[in-house]
Amino acid sequence: xxxxxxxxxxxxxxxxxxxxxxxxxxxxxxxxxxxxxxxxxxxxxxxxxxxxxxxxxxxxxxxxxxxxxxxxxxxxxxxxxxxxxxxxxxxxxxxxxxxxxxxxxxxxxxxxxxxxxxxxxxxxxxxxxxxxxxxxxxxxxxxxxxxxxxxxxxxxxxxxxxxxxxxxxxxxxxxxxxxxxxxxxxxxxxxxxxxxxxxxxxxxxxxxxxxxxxxxxxxxxxxxxxxxxxxxxxxxxxxxxxxxxxxxxxxxxxxxxxxxxxxxxxxxxxxxxxxxxxxxxxxxxxxxxxxxxxxxxxxxxxxxxxxxxxxxxxxxxxxxxxxxxxxxxxxxxxxx
Amino acid sequence: xxxxxxxxxxxxxxxxxxxxxxxxxxxxxxxxxxxxxxxxxxxxxxxxxxxxxxxxxxxxxxxxxxxxxxxxxxxxxxxxxxxxxxxxxxxxxxxxxxxxxxxxxxxxxxxxxxxxxxxxxxxxxxxxxxxxxxxxxxxxxxxxxxxxxxxxxxxxxxxxxxxxxxxxxxxxxxxxxxxxxxxxxxxxxxxxxxxxxxxxxxxxxxxxxxxxxxxxxxxxxxxxxxxxxxx
Lengths: 336, 231
Description:
The structure holds two protein chains of two kinds.
Chain A: H1 2-19, H2 54-64, H3 76-79, E1 107-108, E2 114-115, H4 118-129, H5 134-138, H6 141-151, H7 158-169, H8 178-183, H9 191-200, E3 221-222, H10 238-241, E4 250-251, H11 273-283, H12 308-319, H13 324-327
Antiparallel strand pairs in A: 1-2, 3-4
Helix pairs in contact in A: 2-6, 2-7, 4-7, 9-12, 11-12
Chain B: H1 2-18, E1 25-36, E2 39-40, E3 48-49, E4 55-72, E5 77-80, E6 84-87, E7 95-102, E8 106-113, H2 129-133, E9 147-155, E10 158-166, E11 173-178, E12 182-183, E13 186-192, H3 205-208, H4 216-226
Parallel strand pairs in B: 1-13
Antiparallel strand pairs in B: 1-2, 1-7, 3-4, 4-5, 4-6, 4-8, 4-9, 8-11, 9-10, 12-13
């Protein structure tokens, strides 16, 4: 009987411990960090092997602003400037997609070149985009100490740098714009902003099917009829999938903080929001291959036909998506 | 020794009960399939012909299923209230698993395409990317899209778009299937997409609208047609 009891006790202990997650072993300092998720946003998935901590987040933030990651003097923040929504306005190259709310994202880059977790995307950035010389990080006593403190490691790898960066990306969350406050009944929109909102969220403008109410992107790919002919290098998602049905499709960009940008669409062909609105109003190329069905509804064959007042109101609504608290949040700027 | 027994037995019982399956009950797996009359659905392929006379293709099919009720031959009922999001392109969403399904023969199955009025309210479903994308804006009444069926059709050789979107409580689509064939815990349901466009009403894009979201009359027709899209 004594043996049986001890066997049962041992079994119960095994059951108990087999259910318990073992995390953060070998991590000298682990101060749990709770992400401030904006109201109405989904819960964020955090991988067990990169749980949020104050030390890891601080390290990720430092890396984001440090040109040590690159070999040409650039940091992430060189092209992702907080004051304009962690993007960059430049007439050169492909328009920079903003670093906002990417903790919920699965499709990255304009053509969805990466469909992966945030950690995997950061590994791409470190290993393939910046081609980080990891020896430089390992030669830095400061970074060696910080990585040891945050992750309990003595040799830094590309993966470790990527994991730290992912921590910082998970707090780059914009969800406190005037529109968000309106939805939380904290303030009112002006009559014109409200009219613009109604255009946006009804079939009058039909913006909402691709730019949903929370993220203002559906995280999907569409051909909205920008072009009717396509050439190698500008064929959109097709260049990733090889599927002819993806010719001309690009990722829906978020409209949060779009007021601050001066390059729009995947090739930056428009420099003002007025031009973007006018494109949808009168400029959609309806014969474009793979054009989204919503762009070629026969009832809208002549475009949206918005009046000038409606266009003005729509623009005013788009400006309510500017999140000044996010743009000036001192927790997100370059660490001192 | 007695105190040890007193300590261990209740703990062991709790642990053991946690592993115990409901006797006589197993999960029911529902497999969702798609066809257009005699042809299997192949997205982005202008291969199909609808009753109103157009050739068409399907580019998107997203919808919700909810309110499952199985009536067994002995009169008992199995209710399952969970809401399921389905993206016909995504294999993982086309298999639904209902827990603790009773043994016995089922002679009637009913469910909704869409979400009942208690849950069809803005933000009532968990905030996932899929549910957010299915949102029916408050400016149009709030809640969720029940169905998004989109594609292109040919009108005199010109490609045009269609967007059959259904929402609003009054257009919830009730489905009833008599004597569903459940074999080895599996039930196969097949949606015939052409049924959205016929029976009892012939739906003509040019006549009734190529998009339905702002048209109660169009949604009324689609909702009525939707009752027998599954078999």
